Amino acid sequence: MPIQKAAFKSVRKDKKRHLRNLRIASELKSVEKKFRAFIAAKNQKEARETARLLISKVDKAATKGVLHKNTASRTISRLTRDLGKLELTAAAAAAGA
């Protein structure tokens, strides 16, 4: 247990920040899961919209310190790569049809 008054305040602040970080991380996971489902279903339009939302949320999480900037960059890179693959296969299917 903390002894100084400032230490008690630090514990309160840490608890608040921890809960905020958990909420943001959980939201990121949910949106990414939705994105992956759209990719698996080959739903290009929905995947593109969800990717835009997810990239925004990942950038904001990195800015706020919830994610490290390199982790955010890597995540965004993988999202855009997967979205590009989906669009490429859709374009190839349209050209072949």
Defining key terms:
97 residues, mainly alpha
Explain this structure to me?
The chain has 97 residues and is mostly helical. Helix content is 88%, strand content 0%. It has helices at residues 5-40, 44-64, 69-96. Helix 1 runs antiparallel to helix 2 and helix 2 packs antiparallel against helix 3 (69-96). The model has no long low-confidence stretch (mean pLDDT 94).
Tell me about the largest β-sheet. Answer: none
* Record field, number of beta strands: 0
Mean pLDDT: 94
SSE string, helices as H and strands as E: HHH
| Gyration radius over CA | 19 Å
* Alpha carbon gap, first and last residue: 69 Å
What is the overall silhouette?
Answer: rod-shaped
Number of helices: 3
What proportion of the residues form beta strands (DSSP E)?
under 5%
Low-confidence stretches: none
**Structural class given helices, strands, pairing?**
mainly alpha
Query: What is the share of helical residues?
Result: over 70%
Produce the secondary structure layout.
Elements: H1 5-40, H2 44-64, H3 69-96
Helix pairs in contact: 1-2, 2-3
Give a quick precis of the structure.
By secondary structure, this protein is mainly α. The protein contains 3 helices and no strands. The chain is 88% helix and 0% strand.
